[in-house]
């Protein structure tokens, strides 16, 4: 299986690039942000709880997102692989994901990080906020809080995968197509390696 963690701060282009990668590599897209927003739209108890945190730029508890991902991985046991978008966002989530994949006889192939500076992130998210209607994209203070959550809780996840020799980074600033090409180069190299080891 080809299991990719697409990593980066809020607004780095994870969702944008995931959509393109799915089409090319026939993978299942698991975005915890999207899963949480569907819970909110459906008005579930989990959604109501998550909404309070998300609207304030804070992370949702680890056990909630790990549980959601577990259900989805089990639903798609026959998949060619997964793109994890916006997950894991903390080291305990990364550990939970490793265990879950191990229980399903697979593992993370690589984490690929999109590198974008804070000023560009703020600009992109404020722009998206003009049309997305997402409460967490509406003001600069909230966006900075999300970036701060990323810097304190999420960044260490990169070290976690670097420790396993699975961390790669690409420049997330520039044309969407160019960034996509850079991601594909890494993924094609991984696929080749998997073929050689078969
Ligand atoms: P997410 O839905 O994951 O939101 P995001 O990080 O804001 O989005 P993303 O990074 O995918 O957006 P994209 O760059 O594609 O999370 C939302 C909230 O849910 C979190 O704050 C948290 O509360 C909660 N949550 C989710 N997962 C969680 C977890 N695992 N644990 C705990 N809590 C969790 O797009 C941004 C904008 O940039 C778009 O408008 C796009 O068009 C634009 N863009 C993309 N690429 C560009 C480029 N190259 N140039 C210019 N603009 C570009």
Please, could you describe this protein's structure?
With 198 residues, the protein is an alpha/beta fold. The chain has one domain (2-179): P-loop containing nucleotide triphosphate hydrolases (Rossmann fold, 3-Layer(aba) Sandwich). It has helices spanning 14-25, 32-42, 45-54, 62-75, 91-103, 118-132, 140-154, 156-162, 176-196, and strands at residues 2-7, 28-31, 81-85, 110-115, 167-171. Strands 2-3-1-4-5 form a five-stranded parallel sheet, with helices on both faces. Helix 4 (62-75) runs parallel beside helix 5. The mean pLDDT is 95. BIS(adenosine)-5'-tetraphosphate binds next to helix 1, helix 2, helix 3, helix 6 and helix 9.
Mean pLDDT over the full residue set: 95
Task: Report the uncertain regions.
Answer: none
**Share in helix:** 55-70%
Radius of gyration: 16 Å
Largest sheet: 5 strands, parallel
Overall, the morphology is: globular
Question: What's the number of extended β-strand segments?
Answer: 5
CATH architecture: 3-Layer(aba) Sandwich
CATH superfamily: P-loop containing nucleotide triphosphate hydrolases
Give the H and E element order. EHEHHHEHEHHHEH
Question: What ligands does this structure carry?
Answer: BIS(adenosine)-5'-tetraphosphate
Tally of structural domains? 1
The secondary-structure class comes to alpha/beta
Measured distance between first and last alpha carbons? 12 Å
CATH class: Alpha Beta
CATH topology: Rossmann fold
Task: Report strand order across the widest sheet.
Answer: 2-3-1-4-5
Q: What's the tally of helices? A: 9
Strand content: 5-15%
């Amino acid at each position: 299986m080809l299991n990719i963690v697409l990593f980066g701060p809020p607004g780095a282009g994870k969702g944008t690039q995931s959509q393109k990668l799915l089409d090319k590599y026939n993978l299942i897209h698991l975005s915890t942000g999207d899963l949480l927003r569907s819970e909110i739209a459906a008005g579930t108890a989990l959604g109501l709880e998550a909404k309070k945190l998300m609207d304030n730029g804070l992370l949702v508890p680890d056990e909630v997102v790990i549980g959601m991902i577990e259900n989805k991985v089990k639903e798609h046991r026959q998949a060619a692989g997964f793109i994890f978008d916006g997950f894991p966002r903390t080291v305990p989530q990364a550990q939970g994901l490793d265990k879950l994949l191990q229980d399903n006889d697979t593992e993370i192939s690589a984490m690929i990080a999109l590198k974008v500076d804070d000023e560009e992130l703020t600009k992109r998210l404020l722009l998206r906020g003009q049309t997305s209607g997402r409460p967490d994209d509406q003001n600069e203070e909230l966006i900075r809080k999300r970036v701060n959550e990323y810097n304190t809780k999420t960044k260490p996840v990169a070290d976690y995968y670097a420790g396993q020799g699975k961390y790669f980074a690409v420049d997330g600033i520039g044309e969407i197509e160019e960034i996509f090409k850079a991601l594909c180069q890494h993924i094609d190299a991984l696929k080749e390696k998997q073929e050689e080891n078969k």
